[in-house]
Amino acid sequence: MMTDDELRNLLTDRLTETILRIGEACARVGRDPKEVTLVAVTKTVSVRVAGLLPELGVFDLGENRPQSLWSKAEALAGRSIRWHMIGHLQRNKVERTLPIVELIHAVDSVRLLEAIGAEGAKLGIRPHVMLQVNVSREAQKNGFDLVGLHDLIARWNVEVVGLMGMAAFSDNPEQARPAFVELRQARDELRVKWPALEQLSMGMSGDYEVAVEEGATFVRLGSTLFAGLDGE
Ligand SMILES: *Cc1c(COP(=O)(O)O)cnc(C)c1O
C-alpha cells in the first residue's frame, strides 16, 4: 500500500502532466483552457484515492456504474465533489442517481430521457443531460443517430446541455479525430436553435488531446491518471 503522501505526490505529477497537455492542445488551436473540464474517472480506484482529488483541485469526478457512483458519493459526502454519471444509466436507477449528480453524460434513449424528465419534475428540477451520439459507427455502441435529434430536445423536462461521444478504440489518437469533428459539427448545428446545447463530452486517456483540439469541453480521464492504482 502507498501512503497518502505517496499517492498525493503521484497524483499531483500525473495531474500536472495532464493539465499541461490539455493546455498545449488548447494553445495549438487558440482555445482558452478554462473551457475544458477534466473529469477524473474514478471507476478503477478506491474511495481513498478518489477522496484525495478535491485536495488536489479536482472536484469533477465521474463513474460509469450507478452503484459505484452511489457508494463513492455517500462515502465522500461533504467534499464539494461534482459527480458525473458517464456510463449507461438504467431507468430504474434514475431516482437514486439524479439527486446526486451534476450531469448525466450518456443519455442514449428516448425512454431514459423521458424517465429523467419525469423524475426531475418530481424533484422540482430540470436535470442537465448530454445526449450520447453514436459517432464511432460501432454497432455495439449505444447512442442516438444524429438525424432526428432536433425533435428530441424540446419535448421533455430536461436541459440538454451538450453531446457526448466515444471514438472507436485505436492505438492511434488521430483515428479518433473524424468522430470528434462530426460531434462538434452536430453540436454547432443544434446550438443554432438550442443555445444551451454548448458542451462536448469527448476524449478519454488515449485521445483527449485530439478531442481538446476539436472542441471538447469535458474530457473523461481514467487510466492516464490512475494506472497502477487499482489496489490502493
Ligand atoms: C472508463 C471510461 C472513461 C475513461 O477511460 P480511460 O481510457 O481510462 O481514460 C471515459 N468514459 C467512459 C464512458 C468510461 O467508461
Describe the structure.
The structure is a single chain. This protein has 232 residues and is of the alpha/beta class. The chain has nine helices and eight strands. It has helices at residues 4-29, 47-52, 66-75, 94-97, 110-123, 149-153, 177-193, 208-213, 223-226, and strands at 37-41, 60-63, 82-85, 101-107, 128-132, 159-164, 199-201, 218-221. It has an eight-stranded parallel sheet with strand order 7-6-5-4-3-2-1-8. Helix 5 (110-123) links the parallel strand 4 and strand 5 (128-132). It is globular and about 50 Å long. Pyridoxal-5'-phosphate binds next to strand 8 and helix 9.
Task: Write the topology of this structure.
Elements: H1 4-29, E1 37-41, H2 47-52, E2 60-63, H3 66-75, E3 82-85, H4 94-97, E4 101-107, H5 110-123, E5 128-132, H6 149-153, E6 159-164, H7 177-193, E7 199-201, H8 208-213, E8 218-221, H9 223-226
Parallel strand pairs: 1-2, 1-8, 2-3, 3-4, 4-5, 5-6, 6-7
The structure holds pyridoxal-5'-phosphate.
Task: Tag the structure with descriptive keywords.
232 residues; 9 helices; 16% strand; 8-stranded parallel β-sheet; alpha/beta
Strand share of the residues? 15-25%
Overall shape: it is: globular
Strand order of the largest sheet: 7-6-5-4-3-2-1-8
Major β-sheet annotation: 8 strands, parallel
The quaternary state of the protein chains shown equals: single chain
Mean pLDDT: 94
Present as ligands are: pyridoxal-5'-phosphate
Q: Which ranges are low-confidence, i.e. pLDDT below 50, for 5 or more consecutive residues?
A: none
Helix content: 25-40%
Rg result: 17 Å
CA(first)-CA(last) distance:
6 Å
Order of helices and strands: HEHEHEHEHEHEHEHEH
How many helical elements? 9
What structural category arises from helix and sheet content?
Answer: alpha/beta
Count every beta strand, where a strand is a DSSP E run of 2 or more residues: 8
